[in-house]
Amino acid sequence: MKGEIKMKKDTFWEIVGYISLFGCIIGQIIVGYWYLFAQGIYLICNIGSTIRCFAIHQNPADKIKNITFTAITVGLIIIKIVIGN
Fold first, then answer.
1. How many distinct structural domains can be found in the chain?
2. Which helix (H) or strand (E) covers residue 45, if one does?
3. How confident is residue 85, by pLDDT bands cut at 50, 70 and 90?
4. Domain carrying residue 41
5. What is the CB neighbour count within 10 angstroms for residue 41?
6. Nearest CA-CA partner of 44 in 63, 30, 29, 23
7. Rounded CA separation 5/12 (Å)
8. What is the pLDDT of residues 4-47, one digit of tens each?
9. DSSP 3-state assignment of 49?
């Protein structure tokens, strides 16, 4: 029973990882066309990756990487909203 729950949990976090990867790829493709929409996709994926990182107890370097990318995305969104074009 306990092993079954762990397997479902691991599968869930693996799916979150693939969704984040897919979202980052799509965001990269459309960033030049719909900047804020693409940054929104990045933000969702970066937050998902950051939460996943802590949930599956990844090493500190991965946690710092994901927190940094999330912060950069938030900063770029704020800059775009404040400064505009």
1. 1
2. helix 35-55
3. low
4. 2-83
5. 23
6. 23
7. 10
8. 777 777 788 888 888 888 887 787 777 777 888 889 988 999 99
9. helix
Query: Rounded CA gap, 43 and 71, in Å?
Result: 9
SS3 22: helix
Q: Would you say 39 and 62 are in contact if contact means Cβ atoms under 8 Å apart? A: no
Do 20 and 45 form a contact (C-beta atoms < 8 A)? Answer: yes
Cα dihedral value 77, 74, 68, 63, nearest 10: -140
Q: And the tokens for 8?
A: 């479902």
Residue 1 has pLDDT above 70, yes or no: no
Instruction: Enter the tokens of residue 31.
Output: 């960033």
